C-alpha cells in the first residue's frame, strides 16, 4: 500500500507530457522525404570490437534467390517494387529442382528493400534492428529477451557524459546516487548495483556499485545497459539489478582520422581529450588511441574541498592476419585523484525544505549503562554522543563534510584485454576473451568520520573460451530421404525447420588482493558544520586494551594500524578486511532454438566453482582472535572454501508479427556476498556463498513506423540478498529483498535531423527482516530534530526492529526524455529532462526528499572540421537533494548522517576539432 501512495502526481504529469510530445511527433512530417535508414543494425557488443572480414554485398551475389522470394522482414508493401523491365535478370540453365521450370524463365534478382533512412552508424539511435551480444551471440535488440538500452557515442556526447550517474538521462531504470562520499564506480539499476563488463568480461574490484575504479566514458564507442541479472555467458559477480557492458573504441581500418576537444565551464570545469587512429598495414593492422585529462569538474568542484583530477590513456590495436582470424587488443591506464562529495550532516526536514541547519556542539559521550562522560571520547555501540543543541541557521549548499586536506582518494587502474575470433566456417567460430586488471586505491576519510579503505594492490585475470555454432535440423528427417524429396515436400519441410544457435564454453578467473577497512565508529552528527572541522574534536582510536575492557567487551572493535600507512586504521570481522586469493572455473551452455518464424526458446545454464583462500590481512594481531571466545565471539582465522553455484535461465519468445516480439524470462542463480573490493573475507560462512536470486520478467517490444520507432515495455519481480552494515563481530551481514516494477523505453528517429528518447520506470523494493533476530543497523535511528526535541544521543549505532521495510533513500518513479534536432546547416539543439518522485531517507519514514526534476540543454554547431557546444544544466535552477545512500547499499544505515544538495544552474562549453 505504501507503493501506491508513492506514485507522485508530478512524475505522472511528466509521463503524460512524454506521451503528448510523442503523439505530436507522429503527426508531424519531415520537410522532405528521405531514404529510409539501414535495417541491418550495428555489430554486437563483442563483434563490434573485432575487425570483421569483408563480405560480398547483396548486389554482388550471383546465387539466385529461392522461388517466391519473400519480402525482407520488416518491409512494408508500399515499399516493394518489382525489378524494372530494363533490368530483367539474365536466364540461367535450370538444374536440380529447377529442371521442371520452363527453359527460358528469367530469374529475378534479389529485391532491395529499405525500411529506414540510411544513416551513419554513429547517428542512428533507434534500437530496433541493432544487434548486441549482451546474452552471448549477436541478437537483434527487438529479439533479445531482456530490456536493453544501447547508449551510443552520439548520445553520450549529447550530454557530455562523464559519470555513471549520467546514464539516468537515457535509461529510466538507472537512478543517480551519492554513496555517502564513496566513489561511485557502477550504475544503480532497478534498485540494485549494476555489474560492469568490458567487452563482455567482468570488471572486478567493486561492491554495491562503489569502491571500484571510475568509468572512463571517453574510452567507449557505446554502453549496453541491460536490466535484470547478468547473462549466463558473462557470469555473475553479486546480486545485480542489471549490468552495463562497455564496448570500447575500435581502430580505424579505412584511413587516419581523429579529433581533439577541450571543455571548460563553471566551478573550474577543465577537461581535454584527443582521439585518433588509422591503418598501419592496409586491411591488416590498425590502431585507436584516446587520451583524456581532467583537472576539475563542476559536480565535484561546486562543493567545498571536493575535486576530481584524472589522466586516462587508452589504446586499441586490431589485426586481421588471415581472412578467418581477427585479433583485438585494448589496454587502458587510469590515474584518478579526488575528494568526494559527502554533503551535509544532521539532515532534517527543515534542512531539506528551507536550507536551515541544526547547530549544536559536541558535549560528551555515553557509556553503559547510560553514564554520561563529558568531553572527547569514543562511545561503545548502542550508547552514542551528547550534543548541546543550538538554533536553526541558514547554511550554504556548497558545504561539504569532506572539506579537509586529510580527505582524499587515489586510484591507479590498469587493464589489458585480448579477443581472438577464429571463423572455422560460416556456421562455426571460436572466440577467446582474456582480461587482466590491476587496481590500487587509498580512500582516506578520517575527518569527520573515521573511515579508511585501502587496497595496496589487487590482481584479476579472467579468460573465457567460447564455441559458437548455428545450424538447422529437420525433425524426423533421415539423410537418405533427401534424394526422394519432392518440391512440395521440401516446402513443407522448410516450415518445420529448426534453427539452432549455441554458445558453449568455459571460463577461468584468478583474483588476489589485500583489503583494509575501518568504519565502525563514525560519530558524524557530533560535528557542527557552521564551525571549522579540526583534529581536536576527533573521536579517539580504540586500542585493544580499551576494546577488551568492560566498556566495550569486544576485541573486534580494536582499531589496528594499517601497515605502511601511518595514521590509518582498520578493523577485522567486519566482512570487509581480508587477504584473499580465489579462482573460479565456470562451464556454461546456452542454446537458442527458433522453432518457427514466430516461436523461439532460449535455455542456458552455468556452474561456477569457487576455490577460496581467505585470511586476516597482514598486520592483524593474533591476540584479537585469541581473546574473542572469552567474550562469546567466534575466532577470526583463515578459511578455505570450495563452492559450486548454479545458474539457470529460460526465455521463450513469441513474434506474432515482424514488428512485435513478446518474451518471458525466468532466471535462478546463486551469488555471494562481497568484501569492499570484490573479494571474500575469512569470516564468511558457507551460506554467504549460496544466496538465491530469482527473476520473473515479461516484456513486449515493438518496431513501428517503418522501423523508426522502437518501444520496449516490461514488468518484473526479482528477489535476492543485499549487504547490511554490521558492527565488527556482529551476526548479520545480508538480508533478503524483493523488488517489483515496470519499465518503458522508447527511441524515435523519423529522419536524420530529429531523434527522441524517452522512458518511465516504477520500482518498489522491500528489505525482508521479518523473523530474523535483529533488524537493520542504524547509525542514528531518528533525525537530529527528534534527538534535540527528546534529548536523545546522536550516532548510538543500534539495530532497528526485525520487520519488513520498503527501500529507504529510493524513489519509486523515474522518468526521462531527450530530444535532438539538427538543421542541415549544422546548427542543432538538444533538450533532456529527468524526474524522480519523492523518497523517505530512513526507516522512520518521516524525513522526506520531495519530488524533483531537471531540465537541461545543449546548443551546438557542427561542420566538417569543427564542432562547438554549449551545455546548460538545471536550467530552471531546481532545488533538489539526493540521500547519502540508496536502498540496497550497506551505507544506507548512515542516511541520517549524510544528505547531498545537488547543483544549481551551471554551464560548460566544448570545442572539438576534427582531422
Characterize the structure shown:
The chain has 915 residues and is mostly beta strands. It folds into two domains: 131-244, Beta Complex (Ferric Hydroxamate Uptake Protein, Chain A, domain 1), CATH 2.170.130; 257-344 and 404-474 and 495-521 and 546-914, Maltoporin, Chain A, CATH 2.40.170. The protein has nine helices and 42 strands. The two termini are 59 Å apart. The model is unreliable at 1-116 (pLDDT under 50). Residues 30-105 are annotated as: Disordered.
Topology:
Blueprint: H1 2-5, H2 9-27, E1 131-132, E2 139-140, E3 148-152, H3 153-159, E4 188-189, E5 192-198, E6 201-202, E7 220-227, E8 242-248, E9 257-265, E10 269-281, E11 285-295, H4 298-301, E12 307-322, E13 325-339, H5 349-354, E14 356-367, E15 371-374, E16 385-394, E17 408-425, E18 428-445, E19 451-473, H6 487-495, E20 498-518, H7 544-547, E21 560-561, E22 569-570, E23 578-594, E24 599-615, H8 622-627, E25 639-657, E26 660-671, E27 691-704, E28 709-723, E29 734-748, E30 754-768, E31 777-778, H9 784-790, E32 798-799, E33 804-806, E34 813-822, E35 827-836, E36 839-840, E37 848-849, E38 852-862, E39 866-873, E40 881-883, E41 899-901, E42 906-914
Parallel strand pairs: 5-8
Antiparallel strand pairs: 1-2, 3-7, 4-5, 5-6, 7-8, 9-10, 9-42, 10-11, 11-12, 12-13, 13-17, 14-15, 14-16, 17-18, 18-19, 19-20, 20-23, 21-22, 23-24, 24-25, 25-26, 26-27, 27-28, 28-29, 29-30, 30-33, 30-34, 31-32, 34-35, 35-38, 36-37, 38-39, 39-42, 40-41
Biased composition (Pro residues): 82-96
Membrane topology: Multi-pass membrane protein
Region (Disordered): 30-105
Amino acid at each position: 500500500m505504501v507503493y501506491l501512495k508513492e506514485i507522485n502526481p508530478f512524475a505522472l504529469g511528466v509521463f503524460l507530457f512524454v506521451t503528448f510530445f510523442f503523439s505530436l511527433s507522429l503527426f508531424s512530417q519531415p520537410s522532405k522525404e528521405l531514404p529510409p535508414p539501414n535495417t541491418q543494425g550495428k555489430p554486437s557488443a563483442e563483434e563490434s570490437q573485432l575487425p570483421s572480414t569483408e563480405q560480398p554485398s547483396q548486389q554482388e551475389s550471383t546465387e539466385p534467390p529461392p522461388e517466391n522470394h519473400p519480402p525482407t522482414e520488416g518491409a512494408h508493401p508500399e515499399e516493394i517494387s518489382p525489378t524494372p523491365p530494363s533490368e530483367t535478370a539474365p536466364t540461367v540453365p535450370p538444374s536440380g529442382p529447377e529442371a521442371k521450370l520452363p527453359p527460358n524463365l528469367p530469374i529475378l534478382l534479389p529485391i532491395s528493400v529499405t525500411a529506414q533512412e540510411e544513416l551513419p552508424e554513429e547517428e542512428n539511435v533507434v534500437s530496433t534492428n541493432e544487434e548486441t551480444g549482451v546474452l552471448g551471440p549477436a541478437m537483434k535488440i527487438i529479439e533479445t529477451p531482456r530490456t536493453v538500452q544501447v547508449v551510443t557515442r552520439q548520445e553520450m556526447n549529447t550530454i557530455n557524459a562523464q559519470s555513471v550517474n549520467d546514464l539516468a538521462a537515457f535509461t529510466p531504470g538507472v537512478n543517480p546516487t551519492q554513496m555517502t562520499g564513496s566513489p561511485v564506480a557502477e550504475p544503480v539499476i532497478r534498485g540494485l548495483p549494476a555489474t560492469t563488463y568490458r567487452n563482455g568480461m567482468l570488471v572486478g574490484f567493486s561492491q554495491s556499485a562503489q569502491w571500484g575504479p571510475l568509468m572512463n566514458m571517453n574510452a567507449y564507442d557505446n554502453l549496453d545497459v541491460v536490466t535484470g541479472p547478468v547473462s549466463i555467458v558473462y557470469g555473475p559477480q553479486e546480486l545485480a539489478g542489471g549490468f552495463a557492458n562497455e564496448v570500447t573504441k575500435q581502430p580505424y581500418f579505412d584511413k587516419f582520422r581523429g579529433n581533439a576537444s577541450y571543455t571548460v565551464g563553471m566551478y573550474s570545469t577543465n577537461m581535454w581529450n584527443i582521439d585518433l587512429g588509422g591503418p598501419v598495414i592496409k586491411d591488416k593492422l590498425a590502431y585507436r588511441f584516446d587520451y583524456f585529462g581532467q583537472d576539475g569538474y563542476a559536480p565535484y568542484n561546486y562543493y567545498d574541498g571536493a575535486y576530481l583530477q584524472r589522466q586516462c590513456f587508452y589504446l586499441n590495436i586490431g589485426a586481421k592476419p588471415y581472412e578467418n582470424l581477427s585479433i583485438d587488443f585494448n589496454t587502458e591506464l587510469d590515474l584518478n585523484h579526488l575528494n568526494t562529495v559527502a554533503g551535509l550532516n544532521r539532515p532534517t526536514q527543515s534542512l531539506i525544505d528551507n536550507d536551515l541547519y541544526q547547530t549544536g556542539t559536541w558535549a560528551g559521550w555515553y557509556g553503559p549503562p547510560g553514564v554520561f562522560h563529558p568531553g572527547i571520547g569514543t562511545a561503545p555501540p548502542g550508547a552514542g554522543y551528547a550534543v548541546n543543541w543550538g538554533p536553526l541557521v541558514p547554511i550554504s549548499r556548497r558545504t561539504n563534510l569532506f572539506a579537509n586536506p586529510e580527505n582524499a582518494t587515489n586510484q591507479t587502474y590498469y587493464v589489458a584485454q585480448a579477443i581472438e575470433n577464429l571463423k572455422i566456417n560460416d556456421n562455426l567460430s571460436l572466440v577467446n576473451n582474456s582480461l587482466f586488471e590491476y587496481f590500487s586505491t587509498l580512500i582516506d576519510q578520517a575527518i569527520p568520520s573515521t573511515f579508511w579503505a585501502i587496497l595496496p594492490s589487487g590482481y584479476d585475470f579472467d579468460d573465457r573460451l567460447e564455441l559458437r555454432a548455428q545450424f538447422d535440423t529437420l525433425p524426423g528427417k533421415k539423410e537418405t530421404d533427401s534424394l526422394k524429396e519432392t518440391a512440395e515436400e521440401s516446402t513443407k519441410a522448410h516450415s518445420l525447420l529448426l534453427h539452432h544457435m549455441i554458445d558453449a564454453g568455459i571460463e577461468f578467473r584468478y583474483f588476489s588482493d589485500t583489503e583494509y577497512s575501518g568504519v565502525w565508529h563514525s560519530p558524524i552528527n557530533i560535528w557542527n558544520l557552521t564551525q571549522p572541522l579540526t583534529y581536536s574534536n576527533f573521536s579517539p582510536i580504540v586500542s585493544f586494551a580499551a576494546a577488551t575492557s568492560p566498556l566495550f567487551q569486544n576485541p573486534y572493535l580494536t582499531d589496528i594500524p594499517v601497515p605502511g600507512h601511518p595514521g590509518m586504521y582498520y578493523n577485522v570481522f567486519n566482512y570487509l578486511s581480508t587477504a584473499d586469493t580465489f579462482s573460479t572455473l565456470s562451464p556454461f551452455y546456452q542454446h537458442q532454438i527458433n522453432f518457427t518464424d514466430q516461436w523461439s526458446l532460449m535455455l542456458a545454464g552455468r556452474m561456477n566453482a569457487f576455490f577460496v583462500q581467505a585470511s586476516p590481512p597482514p598486520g592483524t594481531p593474533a591476540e584479537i582472535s585469541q581473546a574473542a571466545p572469552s567474550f562469546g565471539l567466534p575466532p577470526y582465522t583463515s578459511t578455505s572454501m570450495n563452492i559450486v553455484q548454479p545458474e539457470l535461465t529460460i526465455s521463450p519468445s513469441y513474434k506474432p508479427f515482424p514488428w512485435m516480439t513478446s518474451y518471458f524470462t525466468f532466471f535462478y542463480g546463486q551469488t555471494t556476498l562481497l568484501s569492499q573490493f570484490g573479494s571474500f573475507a575469512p569470516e564468511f560462512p558457507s551460506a554467504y556463498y549460496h544466496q538465491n536470486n530469482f527473476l520473473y520478467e515479461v516484456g513486449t517490444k515493438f518496431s513501428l513506423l517503418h522501423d523508426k520507432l522502437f518501444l520496449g515495455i516490461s514488468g518484473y519481480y526479482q528477489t535476492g540478498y543485499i549487504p547490511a552494515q554490521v558492527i565488527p563481530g556482529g551476526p548479520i551481514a545480508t538480508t533478503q529483498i524483493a523488488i517489483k516494477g515496470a519499465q518503458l523505453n522508447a527511441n524515435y528517429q523519423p529522419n536524420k535531423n530529429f531523434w527522441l528518447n524517452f522512458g518511465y520506470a516504477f520500482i518498489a523494493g522491500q528489505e525482508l527482516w521479518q523473523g530474523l533476530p535483529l533488524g537493520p543497523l542504524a547509525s542514528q535511528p531518528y533525525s537530529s530534530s527528534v534527538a534535540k526535541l527528546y534529548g536523545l544521543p546522536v550516532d548510538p549505532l543500534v539495530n532497528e526492529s526485525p520487520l519488513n521495510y520498503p527501500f529507504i533513500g529510493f524513489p519509486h518513479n523515474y522518468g526521462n526524455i531527450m530530444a535532438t534536432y539538427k538543421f542541415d546547416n549544422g546548427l542543432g539543439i538538444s533538450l533532456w529532462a529527468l524526474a524522480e518522485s519523492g523518497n523517505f531517507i530512513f526507516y522512520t519514514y518521516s524525513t522526506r526528499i520531495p519530488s524533483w526534476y531537471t531540465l537541461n540543454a545543449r546548443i551546438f554547431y557542427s561542420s566538417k572540421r569543427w564542432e562547438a557546444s554549449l551545455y546548460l544544466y538545471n536550467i530552471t535552477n531546481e532545488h533538489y537533494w539526493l540521500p547519502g545512500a540508496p536502498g540496497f547499499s550497506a551505507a544506507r544505515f548512515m542516511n541520517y548522517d549524510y544528505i547531498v544538495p545537488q547543483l544549481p544552474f551551471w554551464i560548460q562549453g566544448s570545442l572539438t576539432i576534427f582531422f
